Amino acid sequence: MIVRDHPSTLQLFLVMQGSIVPKIIGKIVGIAFLTTVVILIDTHVAELPHISIAAMSIFGIALSLFLGFRNNAAYDRWWEARKLWGSMIADLRNLGRHMCIFVGNGADRAQILSWAVAFAHLHRGALRDVDVSAEITGWVGAGTASDLLAHQNPADAALRSMADQIGSLTGQQAISGFGQMTISQTLSSLALAQAGCERIKSTPLPFVYSLLIRRTTYLYCWLLPFALIEPSGAFAPLLAAVVAYVFFGLQTVTNELELPFQNVHNGLPLDAMCRTIEISVSEALGQPAPKPLVPKDYVLT
Predict the structure, then answer these.
(1) DSSP letters along 197-228, please?
(2) ∠206-261-151 over CA atoms, to 5°?
(3) Which of 100, 202, 203, 278 yields a CA-CA distance of 20 to 30 A from 178?
(4) Residue 166 exposure: Cα atoms within 13 Å on the Cβ side
(5) What region does 139 belong to: left with phi over 0, alpha with psi -120 to 50, or beta?
(6) Cβ contacts of 269-273, under 8 Å, gap ≥ 24
(7) Distance (Å, rounded) from C-alpha 111 to C-alpha 144?
(8) What is the pLDDT along the chain (301 residues), one digit of tens a residue?
(9) How far apart are CA 99 and CA 112, in angstroms?
(10) CB neighbours (10 Å) of residue 72?
């Protein structure tokens, strides 16, 4: 995720970090080149068919509405994912307080909270398809880390282990019935947040809808040069490039926001949020807390 102050007016047109221009520059140049070729042929070789600028304007408005709707849907996914991770952080902090109230400051509390940190990292690993064994080994040990990673859903396995530990303590009458219910509700909330993130990852926006918008965007940009011949003249390539930047840019931004867990410039900073959880648990256990992650070149991972 990009973390920086708003750029100045000059920097606004020069900043490339986090911009979608590098990803679509080929399309922008291609549309500008196509427009130049159309104008040259129409001027010096043979008159080409001209399209009404009014008709293209109506076409452009319809395309803008489609792109805007899809962009809103993608941003809703991104923001929901952020809220789910925020609720996970709050639940894990609450778990630390609940364990202090109902279990005390013994080894059982430390073990369960260590499992909680492992759960967060395992969940991040599943969402990003990365290996997190190094991050969880320091919390639960190498053997336990290997056992967890052997499951189809390691994060859910960590939650089950926490539940088993709570059940064992309840059987030993180390936790009251009310304490068991309170901690169980917190674990259930963590499971709901995990399932919500898995739903976002495994269910992209409908492909047929994305395909329709992509096809329409290309068709509009390919037909636009024939509508700019008369009203724009020599400025037609520049105007076509600007339109291509807007439409292809919105399409690319939507594709990135649609998958919020990817480790890209505009993705969610899952590493930083896991570090926030580590800090909270370390302080709850009275251990030295690691430093929070800071942006590197304005990028917080």
Answers:
(1) HHHHHH-PSPHHHHHHHHHHHHHHHHHHHHHH
(2) 100
(3) 278
(4) 27
(5) alpha
(6) 269/1, 269/293, 269/300, 269/301, 270/85, 270/124, 270/127, 270/128, 270/301, 271/124, 271/301, 272/300, 272/301, 273/85, 273/89, 273/120
(7) 12
(8) 666 666 666 665 566 666 777 888 899 999 999 989 888 888 888 878 888 888 888 888 888 888 888 889 999 999 999 999 999 999 999 999 998 888 888 888 999 999 999 999 999 999 999 999 999 999 999 999 999 999 999 999 999 999 999 988 888 888 888 888 999 999 999 999 999 999 999 998 888 888 888 888 999 899 888 888 877 777 888 889 989 998 898 888 888 888 899 888 888 999 999 999 999 999 998 889 899 888 787 667 7
(9) 8
(10) 11
Structure tokens belonging to residue 277: 């959880």
Closest CA to 136 of 127, 126, 149: 149
> Which tokens go with 271?
């590493």
Which of helix, strand or coil describes residue 294? Answer: coil
Tokens of 252: 């690319």
Which amino acid type is present at position 264? V
